[in-house]
Amino acid sequence: MFSPPEEDLVHQWESEQDRLRQQVVDVDTEDWQSGPHFSGLDRVGGVDLSFIKGDDVNACAQLVVLSYPELQVLYEDSQMVALTAPYIAGFLAFRETPFLLEALQRLQKNQPELLPQVVFVDGNGLFHYREFGLACHLGVLSGLPCVGVAKNLLQVQGVYKNEEHQSQIAALQRGGDSFPLTAASGKVLGKALRSSDKSSKPVYVSVGHKINLDTAVRLTHSCCRYRVPEPIRQADCRSREYLRTHFPAADTETKE
């Protein structure tokens, strides 16, 4: 178990988030982002960490790269890692980013032709306490376009899972429908997306880096065969399978 976080560690992380947040680019930067069908986009990545239930140190860090638009797996990298930072709400990136970044760097070194042109992150981007979630952190440090897709609503900056939010979800009629996640300040931090006709429960999409929010939502929808976009779903499935294979007696879990 990790010892309770020191107050100076939190201050240090806040300062680092503030510094890195200045480098986030929340507009489209790539040619493939401009067209309605993402012409020129060939490879989409997904990252995730899966844990052995009851073990908050050892995890499987997973990277997958899929072809686009076929969404067939081109590459996968599963690595057991030992997390060294404690979990503190709002600072997940300091716990997970180093290992996800290492996976991207291994790919860049060994098979650069398979490096993804955009990475889907199981977590939030600008939709965050300090507008700098895991997808932003990984995006800035990797230099790659990143999209944050969370399965559960982070109740932050005046966005709550209340009756109004539930009525907005009910109004999403079909896959591709969305509504903005608007902070108390009036700033739109992300969107709730009905990603599939078959799933009425939305996912929460936010900008990580080098992409516009509307583009991120369109791209997320285009990568969904089910509720969760395929790059993240494949990363989740393969990391769980890795743990089941190597630790057959252990239950697995992923963050929500």
From TrEMBL:
Pfam families: Endonuclease_5 (PF04493)
InterPro entries tied to this protein: Endonuclease-V
GO CC, one annotated term: cytoplasmic stress granule
GO molecular function: DNA binding; metal ion binding; RNA endonuclease activity producing 5'-phosphomonoesters, hydrolytic mechanism; single-stranded RNA binding
Subcellular location as annotated: Cytoplasm, Stress granule; Nucleus, Nucleolus
Keywords assigned by UniProt, alphabetized: Cytoplasm, DNA-binding, Endonuclease, Hydrolase, Magnesium, Metal-binding, Nuclease, Nucleus, RNA-binding
Domain of life of the organism encoding this protein: Eukaryota
Any one of the GO BP annotations: DNA repair
Role this protein plays: Endoribonuclease that specifically cleaves inosine-containing RNAs: cleaves RNA at the second phosphodiester bond 3' to inosine. Active against both single-stranded and double-stranded RNAs. Has strong preference for single-stranded RNAs (ssRNAs) toward double-stranded RNAs (dsRNAs). Cleaves mRNAs and tRNAs containing inosine. Also able to cleave structure-specific dsRNA substrates containing the specific sites 5'-IIUI-3' and 5'-UIUU-3'.
PANTHER family assigned: ENDONUCLEASE V
Stated family: Belongs to the endonuclease V family.
Assembly: Monomer. Interacts with PABPC1; the interaction is RNA-dependent and stimulates ENDOV activity.
Protein name: Endonuclease V
Organism: Solea senegalensis
